[in-house]
Write a structure and sequence with these properties.
455 residues; alpha+beta; Pdz3 Domain; 2-enoyl-CoA Hydratase, Chain A, domain 1; 2 domains; five-stranded antiparallel β-sheet; 18 strands; globular
Length: 455
């Protein structure tokens, strides 16, 4: 089989180019609808510009000429007909700021798309980490552990995977997508996957169930040997009492593995509180850099609660926000070691603002609710460096293979234990069920909570 050549394109090209084999849901529009679409799009663009102008953390807009860029976007919209085209233009101009938390939130659709599988970057590859039972993806032979070499004409990378998800789930949901899976001999097989559409109510119910489960049972601890314990912390969007309960279970163990893989962040105050468990002094975490001021974030010691044992922190590409900040503090203060994969590099602070647009004649008025997530603060770590778009680089880069993902073993936890001299096989570590896949198409539901709680 001939190897397909995939294109490593920028986000802007990705947003404005239709993926090969994709069928867009609103590919045509009548002249009357096209006019209304353009009017609505221009109104959205104007309101978004004003919000960015007033609220974006950097008054110099990271070197972007705001008026010039939005004028170009306006001229493009005037030549377009469909919502899909117009929303891509708005998304493009917003994402030119190149930060993880500033993005256009398009109007909600009556139904949400589901392709039946989830992906994650591990090392330099994009792996399938979950396949939904009964989905077309399962029927077509897609399996956990498969390497995704391409989606349409594009190659998923660490830098663009979230942007591809943004395109496929929020901007331009598809009725079917074409993916290319790498075979062991490095050739690719093509799989055409038919999507399923679920009601917004159904998706919200599922999302709320996940959030409730995560917050009601936010951690799990397993003893490896008499000296070593491992705890999985799923979120920082919890009350202090759960941190205290977890650390009480850690108790007198001399060696502690804290698993933050897949933890998308949460409350700033909880990150600071947990950090305080590991130091007997005040520790500077970072500076919040806002438009009008800089605010220092500091973790205070918990005195009699201080954990003095050895520490290893596990992270992966889905460890974001508070998780990666905590891991980086551990590194900078030489308090422990970090094991796993490079973290998400998504640590900016944002607010989400909703807006509504009126459309149509007076007798048939409709409202379109849309929004924008806009960054209001950057984060500079105590060493003067940024984690945004860089992430935390572990002291030991270790990740599961496709075979390990398929077999549900955990070689990363096994390796971390070996650093303490503890013995647990990858198969035994897999029985802790610490590895969980991110739900398909969901932005991390913790990131927005990390936002400016203390600002």
């Amino acid at each position: 089989m001939k190897i397909k050549k995939f294109i490593y394109k920028s986000l802007l090209t990705l947003i404005l180019t239709q993926a090969a084999g994709a069928q867009f849901l609103d590919s045509t529009a009548s002249p009357a609808s096209a006019k209304l679409n353009r009017e609505r799009g221009l109104n959205m663009l104007s309101e978004i510009k004003e919000i960015i102008k007033d609220r974006y953390y950097d008054k110099n807009f990271r070197g972007i000429d705001l008026d010039a860029r939005f004028k170009i976007a306006s001229e493009r919209i005037k030549k377009m007909d469909t919502n899909a085209q117009i929303f891509r233009v708005i998304a493009q101009v917003v994402l030119e700021f190149n930060d993880s938390h500033t993005r256009f939130i398009p109007p909600g659709r009556a139904n949400r798309v589901e392709y039946g599988f989830s992906m994650q970057i591990i090392g330099n590859n994009c792996f399938v980490v979950d396949v939904k039972k009964g989905s077309d993806a399962e029927a077509k032979g897609l399996k956990v552990g498969d390497v995704v070499a391409g989606i349409g004409n594009f190659a998923p990378t660490r830098e663009n995977l979230w942007k591809m998800n943004y395109l496929l789930y929020a901007l331009d949901p598809q009725q079917n997508i074409k993916i290319f899976v790498q075979n062991p001999d490095k050739t690719e097989r093509e799989i055409d996957i038919k999507a399923r559409f679920k009601s917004i109510e159904e998706r919200e119910k599922e999302a709320n169930k996940r959030k409730n489960e995560k917050r009601e049972n936010p951690y799990s601890c397993k003893q490896i040997d008499t000296e070593t314990i491992a705890c999985k912390l799923k979120t920082f969007s919890i009350d202090k009492k759960y941190v205290d309960k977890m650390m009480k279970e850690v108790g007198v163990h001399k060696k502690f593995i804290l698993d933050l893989r897949g933890n998308g962040g949460g409350y700033v105050k909880i990150e600071e509180y947990l950090t305080g468990y590991f130091f007997d002094r005040n520790v500077k975490i970072a500076d919040f850099v806002m438009r009008q001021k800089i605010k220092e974030r500091t973790a205070k010691p918990l005195k009699d609660k201080t954990y003095k044992g050895e520490l290893v922190v596990l992270i992966d590409s889905n460890s974001a926000s508070a998780s990666e900040v905590f891991a980086r503090v551990v590194q900078l203060e030489k308090r422990g070691k970090v094991v796993g994969d490079v973290s998400a590099g998504a640590v900016m602070t944002s607010i989400s603002l909703g807006m509504a647009n009126v459309r149509g004649p007076e007798s048939l008025l409709t409202f379109s609710v849309y929004g924008i997530s806009v960054t209001i603060a950057d984060l500079i770590m105590a060493d003067g460096k940024r984690l945004e778009n860089a992430g935390v680089i572990p002291d030991y880069l270790v990740g599961p293979t496709g075979t390990a993902l398929f077999a549900k073993t955990d070689p990363v936890l096994s390796y971390a234990a070996s650093l303490f001299g503890a013995k647990i096989s990858a198969e035994e570590a897999g029985q802790f069920y610490f590895i969980t896949s991110k739900p398909e198409g969901d932005d991390d539901d913790d990131e927005d909570v990390t936002v400016a709680e203390d600002n």
